[in-house]
Amino acid sequence: MTIRNVDDIYPLTPMQQLMLTHALAAPDSPVLSNQFCYRISGIIDVEALQRSWEDVVRRHPALRTAFIWEGLERPLQAVRSNVTLPFELHDLRTSGARWRDEVARLRQDDQARRYTLTRAPLTRVTLIRIADEQHLLVWNVHHLVADRWSLGPLLEDLRQFYGHRIEGGTWNPPQAPGFRAYVAWTLERPSPAAEAYWRSALHGFQHPTLLGSGGPVAAGVARASIMHRLAPGVLAGLRARAASWSVAVGSPILAAIATALAQECRQRDVVFALTVSGRPSDLPEAERTVGSFINNLPVRVNLTESDQTLHELTRRLQAAQAQRQPFEHVSAADLRAWCEVRPSAPLFDLLAVINLEVAPNPTWPGLELRAEIGQLDGAYPFVLGVGIDEGELVLSMTSADQARATRFLAQLSRALESMASSHASTVGDLVPVASLRESPPTDTVSRDVPARPPALTTAESVLEIWRELLGGAVDLSFDDDLLARGATSLQIVHAFALMEHRLGRTAPLATIFTARSVRGLAAALGEPVERVGSLVPIRASGRRPPLFAVPGIGGNVVSLTALARVMTADQPFYGLQSKGLDGLEPPRADIRTIAREFVSEIEGEIRVPYALLGICWGAAVAFEMARILTTAGRPPALLALLDPADIRGGTGLETPGQHRRVEFVRERLRSFRREIQGASVGASAGRVLAKIRRAGTLLTDPAAAAATRSDFHRFSVERANLRAVLAYRPTASYAGDGVLFLTRDRDPHCAEARLDWLQLIEPSPSVRYVSGSTVGDVLAPQNAPELAAGLREEIDRAVQRLSSPLPDAATP
């Protein structure tokens, strides 16, 4: 089956998964979008600049990427073939002295605008004209698709496209390296080696280093940025000191941050987060690739010995960075599992972003570009920026706690000035170690793998997972209702995958609707998985007509989470999930068989009037259910179909095989081939062979097979459902009240197939358009309220028509 307007689909990196989780947990937070601003001097050809930006977006797959997760066992990123880049031009030449205020307002408005993550591109450009030959170029991009290390190759491409365009020519560069190569690289990294390294690096660290209270960044809390420019000679002094110690200048800065943190927290053994580029040295063309490679990793510094020289400390920090480099791709969830700090507390609350590279200023035709300093922020209580502007070292701190941020910047400034002036030679010269609390002594860069800390209980492990996924919700308790706390379908799927990965146990995803809490999930994991029916009571109480929903092709009711949450509290809501998801019985591959089994499950819960909802693949099932129930004398008040699947027929349909695991492995090998497309032949060959060997073990190795059992069950159900709907042909129409909900932004080529359903329902159903380009869009938290409102209106109308007397045929 061809997917329109999609060049490629592949998984997310661990850091992207964390970003996506944070983005969904706090959709109004601006911290996950980067805003870069450049002052441009000279006469600009605006049309040529806009076309050149569009060329850049077409060239780099990451800039055409959207994210999909609803109804999937794990989120995916989809590279669109064609996108429209938002490009705005504002002319402030008549603003007079107010132009600075207008620029500030435009930049604030730009940063406040939220992206719809399911729609590409997740980037936009604003050009602000402040004088005939003075402009500000504002580029905004989501962290999910590009990091600040992407600026170099991107701006160079923009310069080339623009230069050739204004000269009347074209630039036809070779294909740009794609981000999927890095995703494939992360999938190939051996986790045991990474686990051994990080357990060793964090061994014995049990007391978190916290500047503030340790709580997560709260949505809606005002944050401000403080900026401090150090004296002109500080940077030169640090460079000279670093050269004498044979280290990079970043190492003394890390040492200064550690001593300031130790002073402020009264702690000898400190840990803070450092943003790293994450671009592997063994990945071809990584430095030229546009994408989101960054990761935030712990830096541990032990300041127990006051007579330790700063020379020794900085060399040790530089060596630790070199040892860490092969393991910079690990996820935050794995780091938490490998450290010894209690699950309810973060490791740190300070993120340091150090950028000491002075970007080259290449010649643009008739133009001069200069970067403007902007506010730096992130999903941490304290975000420290260290950069260079006009040859001077600039510090910034973004936080809601201005007093603590100001005090810390003062400590850090003193430490940097002391190091630069050579007044400080030992750790004790920067911080009075004797006044700090004792910490367990340990060698920060020791490679001896320590004994593992005591294992967490099942409930503690589940609590840790959910606190991570809900954006660092340290206030989450064992008995809190996870759905009431806003758990999304993506977070639910991610949580169950982590529970299986860490605990070796799993349960059907629909368990979330009965267990509800961490304690309930822990209890469910402790019980053997039992065969359960298809009917899942997402909300069993309420006075309104019950709604029975058949989800999309994956057959899992967790995709209905956001929709169920925004339906009114008195709306009973039931989901019908596909059999076979628990692996205890085979999936069904016939629409009519599935419909009959679903009808038998809901008969005891039907309260007239009621409504049926079928989504995509589920539309065919709901249609057949409505016909069966009408024949039995219990017709639904309303049959609602959301983006029903094309049932006009398909070609090349395979006969369902008897060896489902062989088919699973075969499909995995197909995906592996797609995964390495675009990489060099030499680099690809080893990965393909390794993946073929690993996939082959699924047929023979019980441990490997068990590790993928949930994926296998979901894969089997999806394949069965797909085959069922492709083979389905309605034999008769349905006479009853119906409505078609169609996605407003769907590919127009699909419209005709969806409208075929109008001929199968008599009288012809009404058609309502809802926001989104896919079913996942419609069911996402930002769009689900629109569908919920439409469903309520249509159900009320259908019930009202049932209760209204029929008009007298003799009445004119």
Give an overview in words.
By secondary structure, this protein is an alpha/beta fold. The protein has 26 helices and 23 strands. The strands form five sheets. Strands 15-17-16-18-19-21-23 form a seven-stranded mixed β-sheet, with helices on both faces. A six-stranded mixed β-sheet has the order 8-14-13-11-9-10. A five-stranded mixed β-sheet has the order 5-6-7-2-12, covered by helices on one side. Helix 7 packs across helix 11.
Number of helices: 26
Number of strands: 23
Strand order of the largest sheet: 15-17-16-18-19-21-23
What distance separates the N and C termini?
A: 53 Å
Q: Segments where pLDDT lies below 50 for 5+ residues? A: 439-453, 650-707, 808-812
Tell me the strand percentage band. Answer: 15-25%
SSE blueprint and pairings:
Blueprint: E1 6-11, H1 14-25, E2 33-41, H2 46-59, E3 65-68, E4 76-80, E5 87-91, H3 99-112, E6 123-131, E7 134-142, H4 151-166, H5 180-188, H6 191-201, E8 224-229, H7 232-245, H8 250-265, E9 269-276, E10 295-302, H9 310-324, H10 332-338, E11 350-355, E12 368-372, E13 382-389, E14 392-399, H11 402-420, H12 427-430, H13 458-469, H14 489-503, H15 512-515, H16 518-525, E15 535-539, E16 547-550, H17 561-566, E17 573-576, H18 591-602, E18 611-615, H19 617-631, E19 638-642, H20 660-675, H21 681-700, H22 702-707, H23 709-727, E20 734-735, E21 738-743, H24 751-755, E22 761-762, E23 766-770, H25 775-779, H26 784-803
Parallel strand pairs: 5-6, 9-11, 11-13, 16-17, 16-18, 18-19, 19-21, 20-22, 21-23
Antiparallel strand pairs: 1-4, 2-7, 2-12, 3-4, 6-7, 8-14, 9-10, 13-14, 15-17
